[in-house]
Write a structure and sequence with these properties.
By secondary structure, the chain is mostly helical. The protein folds into 2 domains: about 160 residues, Ferritin (Up-down Bundle), CATH 1.20.1260; about 160 residues, no CATH class.
Length: about 325
């Protein structure tokens, strides 16, 4: 990716009024394009917010046209291309294609930040202008950008009815569960349950805390890496709609590792029976945490989740203890 070296940038204070207007025209064009890119991305799942963003893009088009009219009246029809990245201290927008996973709330927050930055720019530009007509236009645009928060609220009122907002919130919740909760829960279950047998078999076979810890650490990290790569590789999320494979892989891998480490870390305690007692207590907490997550986010009935997780975990623990004790 190419960038403009700092020593090639112009200071904002050194820009002429002609250059300030050219910069403002370019900035308005960029912002309108960003709003439309956001709208296009959100339209399949959040059509009401997409309509709101398109209306905001139309507002930026009107601002740009007013700037062009003033520029041509003062300086002619040749408008130099001056972008924000050419000016030291200007807030540069990240290219939209570098933000592929922005969610609904993040996009709304990004739009609010863009409007605030535009207001600051016009206030700064107006202070630097000596021409009355230019100063007035820049001041008017600063006021317009300051009022965009109210505009956004008005557009939300017009385009985001309670039913539309509820539908979008439900879609966002579903996406959060598919991308983060579901793979994270699968990882936590795998890490917590599948490592019970090797850790406690080692514990009861050796009665050695350090050896048990090393086995638990290896099992947890290995399982985390395996689960993470498996989750990321088996579904790219395009057809299933489950979101970024790397986010899902990260959630699954981290939670798998944490699930195993939870009852491995107590074996850093040198006294074997103290470490084992704490590890068993941790297992109990882990299993009930899984039950709570299943009930809270996956809407699994509490008794069914309890039967599946706690009974399954108890059987795996018993298998490990019997094998190690034998």
């Amino acid at each position: 990716m190419f960038s403009t070296p700092l020593f090639h940038r112009r200071r904002f204070a050194d820009l002429s009024e002609q250059e300030i207007l050219a910069l403002a025209i370019s900035a308005e064009e960029d912002d309108a394009r960003i709003y439309r890119s956001f709208a296009q991305r959100l339209r399949p799942d959040y059509p009401a917010t997409a309509t709101m963003l398109e209306s905001m893009a139309a507002e930026e088009d009107l601002h740009r046209q007013r700037l062009i009219d003033l520029f041509t009246a003062r300086f002619g029809t040749t408008i130099p291309l001056i972008r924000r990245e050419y000016v030291a201290g200007a807030q540069v927008r990240r290219p939209i294609w570098l933000q592929p996973e922005l969610g609904l709330d993040a996009i709304r927050a990004e739009a609010a930040a863009m409007e605030k930055a535009a207001e600051d720019f016009y206030l700064r530009a107006a202070r630097q202008s000596s021409d009355a007509a230019t100063r007035k236009l820049l001041g008017d645009l600063a006021a317009a950008e300051a009022g965009h928060e109210q505009l956004a609220e008005g557009l939300e009122a017009a385009h985001l009815s309670d039913s539309a907002r509820n539908a979008e919130d439900l879609t966002a919740k579903r996406q959060f569960i598919l991308t983060w909760v579901q793979p994270g829960l699968a990882g936590l279950m795998d890490g917590s349950v599948s490592t019970l047998a090797p850790i406690f078999a080692t514990a009861f076979a050796t009665h050695d805390s350090w050896t048990t810890f090393l086995v638990g650490l290896a099992a947890s990290v290995g399982a985390g890496i395996s689960m993470g790569f498996t989750e990321a590789a088996h579904d790219d999320g395009v057809i299933s709609g489950r979101g970024s494979p790397w986010k899902r892989g990260l959630a699954s891998g981290v939670m798998t590792t944490l699930g195993g480490l939870g009852h491995a870390l107590p074996y850093l305690i040198a006294d074997f029976w103290t470490a084992t007692s704490i590890a068993i207590a941790v297992v109990f907490i882990e299993l009930w945490a899984i039950v709570w997550i299943q009930n809270r986010y996956m809407e699994t009935p509490f008794l069914r989740a309890t039967l599946q997780v706690v009974l399954g975990g108890a059987l795996v623990f018993a298998a490990g203890a019997l094998i190690g004790g034998g």
